Amino acid sequence: MIRKQARQRRDYLYRKAQILKDAETGEKRAQLRSALAAGKPLDPEIARDKTLRKDFQYDQSKPELSAQEEMDLDDEYSMLSGVSEPRVLVTTSRDCSSRLAAFSKEIRLLLPHVFVRTSYDSVELAEVGPRMTMRPFEIRGGTLDSKEGDVEWHLTHYTRTGRKKEYL
After folding, report:
1. What is the C-alpha separation between 156 and 137, in angstroms, rounded?
2. Which of 23, 42, 85, 119 could bond 67 through an S-S bridge, CB–CB 3.0 to 4.6 Å?
3. Confidence at residue 32, expressed as pLDDT on a 0 to 100 scale
4. Is residue 159 within 8 Å of 73, Cβ to Cβ?
5. 30: which residues sit within 8 A by CB, 6+ positions away?
6. What's the rounded Cα separation, in Å, for the pair 126 and 167?
7. What span is annotated as the signal peptide, if there is one (predicted)?
């Protein structure tokens, strides 16, 4: 537990340092942009920065965010970054379409950490979700003509961006 907390602390400090460094570079870009727009002479510190001048043409399309705005952005993978592999759960109905069956086989081959549900008696989705730190969400199948269709439940990781609801 102590190693995990130390790793998370290092990861947090590294990300925070990167954000502050990017914010400082953003402030320099804003000063450069305002000096060029107003026709004023550049600050000597900015004028000496060769990488800032070289990358200025590419930086014009990037929106400028302050350090606080950068920190407010959701990072849904922050809890998983380098700590654990994401877990994938592939569930299908017993009589699924051939395209869905082919897709689930491809996913099982591509992703190494896939939990495959074998039968209804062996595992319930409500049991698997908390163990894998996942939450269910609903996909409704249907067409534009007919809203009646299959209802599928899928499990995704808990994230700060997702709404947490109890479906099961």
Report:
1. 7
2. 23
3. 83
4. no
5. 64
6. 9
7. none
CA 15 vs. chain centroid, Å, equals 15
pTM greater than 0.90 (yes/no): no
* The total number of residues written for the chain in this structure: 168
Beta strands 151-157 and 134-140, pairing class: antiparallel
Q: What is the DSSP letter of 43?
A: P
Residues contacting 112, CB < 8 A, separation 6+: 85
CB 125 within 8 A of CB 156: no
Confidence class of residue 15 from pLDDT cuts 50, 70 and 90?
Answer: confident
Listing DSSP states for 25-42 in one string gives HHHHHHHHHHHHHHTPPP
